[in-house]
Amino acid sequence: MIGANGCKLQSGEIMEIRETHLIDRKHEHHAKEVIFLFTPLCGTCKLAEKMLQIALKSGITAPIRKLNINFAPTVRDSWQITSVPCLVLLRGGKPVKLEYRIQSVGYLYEMLKRFMNED
């Protein structure tokens, strides 16, 4: 898979997208996906991303992408994002849950597993 910067992604890495990509593909209506909102200088965001990568390597099948909130004012405002890091669980392209508590790999694994198994 190729990331936003044109580099090949390694296993467990999370592809970065741009706000325009997220907005332009609204008509695609993916069943379920997860958007990880972050800022590059946020230490907690870096830790949360590492935990997400471990959860992915542990068998989570959720499509996870990351978005730099500094360059996503439309998404930030329409989804009413109050802080980062934030995991946005999407169903049919619409947010169904905003998760600000990124407690542990186990917590992320179980939350994402439940989300992917829901009808």
Rg over CA atoms: 13 Å
Biggest pleated-sheet summary: 5 strands, mixed
List the total number of helices. 4
Main sheet: which strands, in order across? Answer: 1-3-2-4-5
Overall pLDDT confidence: 86
User: What percentage of amino acids are in beta strands?
Assistant: 15-25%
Give the termini distance in whole angstroms: 28 Å
Write the H/E string, N to C. EHEHEHEEH
Portion of residues in helices? 25-40%
Shape: globular
Category from helices, strands and their pairing: alpha/beta
Task: Offer a concise description of the structure.
With 119 residues, the protein is an alpha/beta fold. Helices cover 34% and strands 23% of the residues.
Any overview of this molecule?
A hairpin with a 2-residue loop joins strand 4 and strand 5 (94-99). The chain has helices spanning 19-24, 43-57, 73-78, 105-117, and strands spanning 15-17, 32-38, 64-68, 86-91, 94-99. Strands 1-3-2-4-5 form a 5-stranded mixed sheet. By secondary structure, it is an alpha/beta fold. It is built from 4 helices and 5 strands, in the order βαβαβαββα. The chain starts with 14 loop residues before the first strand and ends with a helix.
